[in-house]
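Posting this for the archive.
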Amino acid sequence: MIDPRPSLRTVLERLAADGLATADVVAESARVLAAAPRRTPWYLTALTAIGAWLAALFLLAALMLLLNLVSTGKPPFLGIGVALVVAATFQGRTARTLFFAQGALAVSLAGQLTVLIGVGDAVHGASGIEDRLWISGAALAQAVILHFLYTQPLHRLLASLLALLTLVVMFAERRWDAATPLILKSYAGALALALAALGGGAWTREDLRPVGRAVGGALVVALCVIMDQGSGHGGGLGWSGGALLPGLGDPLGIVVGAALILVLLRAAGGPASVRREPVALALAGALALTLLTDAGVLTSVLLCVLGLAADDDLAWVAGGITLPFVLGHYYYSLQVSLLAKSGALAASGAVLLVAAAYLARRPWAREEG
């Protein structure tokens, strides 16, 4: 009976049995396969991360309830958090079953959150520096330390994501004033540039890939906060009414657009690749998006490009999922009449049809397709 979905090893063995491949080729292929990194599918990674967050919140709630019942003074949150992180590190390194491996994720996240609660409790009212600065600094330091202690990519991803999201929360907790949108947009711009730096050769390193994913996730969350809270206070990602090139009035969009162009250049092989027609067209499209859209649209496109260039399914799926939402927000925030919005939609469709017709006639486009 023929296996409808044979493994690559089975195919090689059959080729060798039929005399179509030598034993050396089979042995070398087996060695390469054994050395290749085994990545978890993106949907399993996402589901596991969500499950770990939920389990950590339940564990943290149970821990708080227990401490309130048995403690007569101030609970030692910092010490308990450090103990949980140490236990999770040991459990993650020695776990041999899926149950204990997933349990280590929940314990780790609960410990990290408890450490941050302990830091906030320890410095509350004891310093002239705002408590959120201490908590943010502790979150970053904790993420750096745990990056070297943890060996599992998902542990590193969650530790980095927790630290970066803590900064978003700390910035968003400020009283919303004229400086808050600037702070959030500056942070989002720094994340975009960091994502571009990690989107080159560094992204292919398995130890830095979780950090890149965490930076991309934090960038999306930061933009969501800006769009949700800032739109009513002059700090959103809205259209500059009446401007011919509205992107020029959005510094954050310019930064994200520059990050997109850098990623395209690095993925294509450097500045010398601009002479090739596909690269020149891609750069022209990125420049047009920078001038005509906002940072939300550019971020989704950036994630898609990064995912395809770095062979990271989670990145391009995240970009593809967020793209319809940011396009809808962009369309809604246009400060023009409905007739003008309809004209913009029609013009966009016409441009896409012309581009598709042009690409259909190019030999390199047919080869890529």
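The chain has four domains: 1-36, 40-173, 202-334, 336-369. Residues 63 and 69 are 10 Å apart (CA to CA).
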